[in-house]
Design goal:
Blueprint: H1 4-18, E1 28-29, H2 32-36, E2 40-46, E3 52-58, E4 79-84, E5 92-93, E6 103-108, E7 114-121, E8 124-131, E9 136-139, E10 143-144, E11 153-157, E12 160-166, H3 173-176, H4 181-193, E13 202-205, E14 208-211, E15 218-224, E16 230-234, E17 238-243, E18 249-258, E19 274-282, E20 288-289, E21 296-297, E22 303-304, E23 310-316, E24 326-331, E25 337-339, E26 362-365, E27 368-374, E28 380-384, E29 391-392, E30 406-408, E31 411-416, E32 419-424, E33 429-432, E34 438-440, H5 450-455, E35 462-467, E36 472-476, E37 481-484, E38 494-498, E39 502-509, E40 512-519, E41 522-529, E42 536-537, E43 540-547, E44 553-560, E45 571-575, H6 598-603, E46 606-610, H7 626-640, E47 649-654, H8 656-667, E48 673-677, H9 683-688, H10 692-696, H11 705-712, H12 726-732, E49 745-750, H13 758-769, E50 774-779, H14 789-807, E51 822-823
């Protein structure tokens, strides 16, 4: 870690390096190894008492100690660094060096005296509490549960911590769900020994599928910082929990029975698989209150009234759909249930349903609930419920905010129409602050579950905003504005943490990133990483504006090789994703795991066109109209850059984009090369095939809805099971249309991918049977994305080798040098 003075000096050197005049001889093109060795800042936070800031600093991905935990493998290199807000000293390690690495942030205690942290070391994940007075850490001995839908930890007060924990001392299922090899290899060993059974058993009856083995359970406990003792608050499988504002009670959702699948009802791909039951636990006494009538509680809404007397949820009876349910308040004192009439208001957009990915947005305004909803044919607004009819609160706004930036006893604050507004308890809306336009300054945090992002406004009477000048500012409920940082400095690239008087932000240039503390009237650089990246040259990114196939203005992105004359560009790789209305923000330097980074491909001499490809509102089949969208993007890019080698086109796609690439190959010979990664090819098998995780550990959740729902009502869009629409399944199964493919095809798969490797294998076999050019690469131990650095290097080498073979001016019908190679068997 650099001291503050040294970090500043190095960053100043970086500015000089970045100045105009850097010659091509001094710079070299960026490579995948550069990206995998880049350090990064994880998350950061400011203590509630305004004394401390803490941030995560992680080494490059390739330095992780293991790569079988998907995203969480990067946590193994994480260190925590602390700095004082009022002094100018350099950041220091939060923990003694003897604690090693693998530490990440949890929440602060209410006063800021203590900080919850987690450590990931080996096969152990554990919670610990740091006392900020002497920076000592006390490890709890408990394994916190990580959940995609529920909370992990909350402080009741400075002395009491509530955690969802696992009974075993291993790793949470969320971390190891893409690594089923341990359970599979254990069964292989037992089979070789011949003494114990190795079977897994799954049953289905009355629309419920399940395993004969119990799932990993998560119970809720309170842990005393002083004594180190814990007390059980809720047993069974805890799905989510939310602490009351005063810390006296906690609302808990636990798993009930599985939800049966109706043979006739429409499928919801991401449907919540189990009933969710609510209870309210008083921490001091352990008293448990449940609703006086059985309720199934939807995920993503568990909102406490300010006085702690009631919890707001979206509920239904067990025999109802979520759409037939409604907002419900459950008394924390006696379980009394209050249902609110919403008069036909719809809380989700057309085509969405309440599930693991979509939830109702609602909160309290004083004693009344308010709901974010739309009329049948109208726009979304916030509506106050509790009277005879819902009352619209945001009618006077041109746009309605989906979330609030703050909540306190006097009302809610939000950002809309370029201003900060105050929604008072009376229901009146007042504009705050100056006349200049502002936008919401959102924080990026990976540890917040969807409920916290949708329905957990911060308990504050101020809002962080970005001004028209690019400054970060605080607007308070009385309309006062306070700018954080130097007004003439560059705008933040990312906001990590913010309080009423300070913020932690980063600024980046070509991969070099500096972390800054902003305060009123000044800035302080804390740390800097990746200064070596300033000597790397990268692609020039050109925004190509054009009309999509519905006549709407959109944009695609064209990556041009650095320091390369147009005449020497080797070819153009076109990429897209069916349903993407634009090319988005473009790839960044640290985007290399979840997809192929165009910056690396461009550095090898190829242009890359990231094409916009919007969905058809009523598609005739999966990826319908995708070729037309690509053609429009290519035409616009060709008009912008006419001298590129447009006669040497390759088409790349991953996942549904890989399916789209293969579908285009059945429709046109325009492309000289096709690269399809994790691409489905057979809808008949995709519909009912288990994922590798479900095969290995069916007790953790046998949710066949994911595959069936994807095919029937998701991106597949068939609308029926195979026996009701066999022709539609046949038409969508590209392996049955392989006779139409004339272009050389590179297929990439992994044996742990939920898009089963059997599907690209079938396509490879179909092309082989017709003596057509194809290559199949299987990455063993990998899933939908590649995590191993060795496999990442090989992936780019394989893609670049394939492009060289198929886009070389002398190639016509396939890769030269004999028959295609297959690397589909492990060494």
């Amino acid at each position: 870690m650099f001291g503050c003075w040294r970090a500043a000096a190095l960053w100043a050197a970086a500015v000089l390096i970045l100045a105009p005049g850097l010659s091509a001889a001094q710079a070299r093109a960026v490579t995948i190894d550069d990206l995998m060795t880049m350090s990064s800042f994880g998350e950061a936070s400011l203590s509630p008492d305004g004394q401390w800031g803490v941030y995560e600093r992680r080494d490059g991905w390739a330095m992780s100690s293991r790569f079988d935990l998907s995203y969480w493998s990067g946590w193994t290199t994480s260190e925590l660094w602390v700095f004082g807000l009022s002094d100018r000293g350099p950041p220091q390690r939060l923990l003694d060096a003897s604690e090693g690495r693998g530490h990440v942030l949890g929440p602060w205690s209410p006063s800021g005296r203590r900080l919850l942290i987690y450590r990931l070391q080996g096969d152990r994940f554990e919670a610990g509490v740091v006392d900020m007075q002497d920076r000592s850490v006390r490890w709890t001995g408990l394994t916190p549960n990580l959940s995609a839908t529920g909370a992990t930890a909350a402080w009741a007060d400075d002395e009491t911590l509530v955690l969802a924990v696992l009974d075993d001392l291993g790793l949470p299922w969320l971390m190891r769900q893409y690594s089923p090899s341990a359970s599979v290899s254990a069964r292989w060993r037992r089979m070789a020994e011949g003494r114990t059974r190795t079977s897994t058993v799954v049953d289905t009856h009355d629309g419920v599928a399940g395993s004969d083995q119990a799932a990993q359970a998560a119970r809720l406990v309170s842990w005393s910082v002083q004594s180190g003792e814990f007390r059980r608050l809720a047993d069974g499988r805890v799905l989510d929990f939310s602490m009351a504002p005063d810390g006296a009670r906690i609302a808990v959702l636990t798993a009930g029975a599985s939800v049966p699948l109706s043979p006739e009802a429409p499928l919801v791909q991401s449907a919540f698989p189990v009933r969710s039951r609510l209870s309210v636990v008083t921490l001091s006494s352990g008293k448990v209150v449940t609703p006086i009538q059985p309720l199934d509680i939807a995920p993503h809404l568990l909102s406490w009234r300010k006085d702690g007397g009631a919890v707001l949820v979206w509920s239904r009876r067990d025999d109802q759909t979520w759409a037939a349910g409604g907002l419900t308040a459950v008394s924390a004192h006696n379980g009394q249930v209050t249902r609110y009439l919403h008069d036909g208001l719809q809380p989700l957009v057309v085509g969405e349903a309440i599930d693991l990915l979509h939830g109702v947005r609602a909160t309290w305004l004083g004693a009344d609930p308010i709901l974010y909803a739309r009329t049948q044919d109208g726009r979304f607004d916030w509506w106050r419920l509790g009277g005879d009819r819902p009352k619209k609160l945001t009618a006077g706004l041109a746009t309605t905010p989906a979330t609030f930036s703050g909540a306190d006893t006097d009302g809610l604050t939000f950002v809309a129409d370029g201003a900060v507004w105050r929604l008072a308890l009376s229901g009146t809306t007042v504009r705050l602050g100056p006349d200049q336009a502002v936008s919401a300054a959102g924080m990026a945090t990976g540890k917040q579950v969807l409920r916290q992002r949708l329905n957990a406004p911060e308990p504050r009477d101020w809002s962080p905003v970005q001004t028209g000048r690019g400054d970060l500012a605080i607007l308070t409920s009385d309309g006062a504005e306070k700018t954080l940082g130097d007004p003439i400095a560059a705008a933040p690239d990312r906001l990590y943490a913010v309080s009423r008087s300070a913020a932690i932000i980063s600024r980046s240039d070509r991969g070099a990133t500096a972390l800054w503390l902003l305060r009123a009237g000044g800035e302080r650089q804390l740390d800097v990483v990746n200064l070596n990246m300033t000597s790397r040259s990268s692609a020039t990114i050109v925004t190509v504006s054009h009309l999509d196939r519905y006549g709407r203005r959109t944009h695609s992105l064209l990556y041009l090789p650095p320091e390369t004359p147009t005449s020497q560009i080797k070819g153009v790789v076109v990429s897209g994703y069916p349903g993407a209305p634009s090319a988005g923000r473009g790839f960044q330097w640290d985007d290399f795991v979840v997809g192929v980074n165009p910056l690396v491909i461009a550095s090898a001499g190829y242009a890359w066109l990231q094409a916009a490809a919007p969905d058809n509102p009523a598609p005739a089949g999966p990826a319908d109209g995708y070729r037309e969208s690509l053609d429009l993007a290519i035409a616009a890019a060709r008009q912008s850059q006419p001298d590129l080698p447009w006669d040497r086109l390759a088409l790349f796609g991953h996942s549904f984009g890989g399916y789209g690439a293969l579908k285009v190959a059945t429709e046109t010979p325009r492309y000289r090369s096709i690269i399809a990664s994790s691409a489905g090819t057979n809808f008949f098998s995709k519909w009912g095939e288990f994922s590798p995780i479900e095969r290995a550990d069916p007790q953790q959740g046998l949710s066949l809805l994911d595959r069936m729902g994807w095919v029937e009502v998701g991106q597949g869009g068939i609308g029926a099971p195979p026996w009701r629409a066999p022709q539609a399944y046949r038409d969508a199964s590209l392996v049955l249309n392989a006779d139409r493919i004339q272009t050389p095809v590179l297929l990439i798969t992994g044996d742990r991918d939920f898009v089963s490797m059997s599907e690209p294998e079938q396509m490879f076999s179909a092309l082989h049977r017709q003596a057509k050019a194809a290559r199949l690469i299987t990455y063993w131990g990998e899933g939908h994305f590649l995590w191993s650095p060795a496999n990442q290097r090989d992936l780019y080498a394989q893609i670049l080798g394939w492009l060289a073979e198929t886009l070389d001016p002398s190639s016509v019908a396939g890769p030269p040098g004999g028959p295609p190679r297959s690397t589909s068997r492990p060494p």
